[in-house]
Amino acid sequence: MDVCLSSEQQTTHLQEAPRTPDGCFALAAEGAPREEGTGGPPGDATEAGPPLPGLQQFVPTDYESYTQEHYLFAGAKIVIQESIESYGAVVWPGATALCQYLEEHSEELNLQDAKVLEIGAGPGLVSVVASLLGAQVTATDLPDVLGNLQYNLLKNTVNRAAHLPAVRELVWGESLEQRFPRSAFYYDYVLASDVVYHHYFLDKLLATMAHLCQPGTVLLWANKFRFSTDYEFLDKFKQVFDTTLVAEFPESSVKIFQGILKWG
Ligand SMILES: C[S@@+](CC[C@H](N)C(=O)[O-])C[C@H]1O[C@@H](n2cnc3c(N)ncnc32)[C@H](O)[C@@H]1O
């Protein structure tokens, strides 16, 4: 079980947060009851993931590099702690657009109890909103941003969300079948916001998106389109996924695409 957010957990304990064998943070503080049986993908109890380095980097000790942004989604005030230290600790325009889309379409998307995985979750706004809308969320990212991600999820979902979200390391293209075996993991939705920009992992990103999708999975990818490379990725995306443009935000140049993995 890789869900670990406990209502008893205080943010000051995050530095020492223990990990479950599958590489997820076990957030229950010493002496605090641990939430069991909520959220997280099924069947992952046997998976042994590597330790997650870097957790301490994002515990808010250097307060001058941190700021807080406030949002209102799903009828809740959401406070997201951001840091100037990493791309992954700032809310990007695709995230707010995707949150708006999820909020406006939550019933038709049937998010209640849906199994959702977010890739490149960054500071976690999308995962927070999906959780508040009733989904069972696993938020993933590179190891060194997971501490801040975990902090934001905890702060905004405890005592508010029906299913407490999980946090897991997922490095695009790395050990996918070992860490997220298709036989054990099924997601109704895979969410991704602003994961396409100038970086060297676009092919691995696409392979990761494909790996996480099975028949019935809907991928929702929100992105601010800036460069020709963004459109090149979209062309490759269309080769792998049946693609529908489901929303457009001209003021921010964000587009949201729905992708259904092509089979056969
Ligand atoms: C531009 S930020 C977007 C963050 C968040 N989704 C948002 O829209 O606010 C891109 C995210 O992708 C993550 N990322 C970048 N390269 C990655 C990789 N190779 N594997 C996993 N995550 C990666 C970053 O850590 C970061 O959180």
Give your account of this protein's structure.
By secondary structure, the protein is an alpha/beta fold. The protein has a single domain, classed as Rossmann fold (3-Layer(aba) Sandwich). The chain has 7 helices and 9 strands, in the order ββααβαβαβαβαβαββ. Strand 8 and strand 9 form a beta hairpin. Residues 1-57 have low confidence and may be disordered. The structure holds S-adenosylmethionine. Residues 87-88, 91-92, 94-95, 120-122, 141-142, 145, 171-172, 193-195, 197, 199, 201 line the site of S-adenosylmethionine.
How would you briefly describe this protein structure?
Residues 1-14 have a biased composition (Polar residues). The protein is α/β, with parallel strands linked by helices and 264 residues long.
Detail the topology: elements first, then pairings:
Blueprint: E1 66-73, E2 76-83, H1 93-104, H2 106-109, E3 115-119, H3 125-132, E4 136-141, H4 146-157, E5 166-169, H5 176-179, E6 189-193, H6 202-212, E7 218-224, H7 228-240, E8 241-249, E9 254-261
Parallel strand pairs: 3-4, 3-6, 4-5, 6-7
Antiparallel strand pairs: 1-2, 7-9, 8-9
The protein binds S-adenosylmethionine.
S-adenosylmethionine (SAM) binds next to helix 1.
Number of strands: 9
Strand content: 15-25%
CATH superfamily: Vaccinia Virus protein VP39
Report the uncertain regions.
1-57
InterPro entries: Methyltransf_16, SAM-dependent_MTases_sf
Organism: Suricata suricatta
Protein name: Methyltransferase like 21C
Pfam families: Methyltransf_16 (PF10294)
Main attributes?
two-stranded antiparallel ribbon; 264 residues; alpha/beta; 7 helices; 7-stranded mixed sheet; Rossmann fold; binds S-adenosylmethionine; globular
